[in-house]
What does this fold into?
Amino acid sequence: MRIIGLDYGSKTVGVAVSDPLMITAQGVEIIRRESENKLRKTYARIEELIKQYEADVIVVGLPKNMNNTEGARVEATRQFCTDIARRTGIEPVMWDERLTTVISDDAMIKAGIRRENRKEYVDMIAAQLILQNYLDYLAFKAASEDKDE
It folds into this structure.
């Protein structure tokens, strides 16, 4: 089993996938759209990736505000998740993505990636962080359950 992580944005969708053991997340690609409302090709590409990686779980970053309120981007993300579920039969898990873009950008600065090149990778790295946070949660939850037995 593998898990796909998505960082949904108005122009791009960052994509990451877990390894088969669900320990680490690797960035895969950034799906780019011509306009915010044109998602048909985006959905088709996500479906291809689900088949390619034999994924049966999708994690989508939920862009809450820092004060835990939900803005317009959250509503758009919820609609995206509804559409993904209808097309794939997989109900996405929505995962708090606060600060993932900031952390992604910081990591690229430390890696010496030039400012003009960072836009090329930030969404994919954010998807990787969202997925890795979710994988870490699953590992912690499994360890806690083992401890209780």
About this structure: Strands lie at 2-8, 12-18, 25-32, 55-62, 93-96. The mean pLDDT is 89. The longest strand covers residues 25-32.
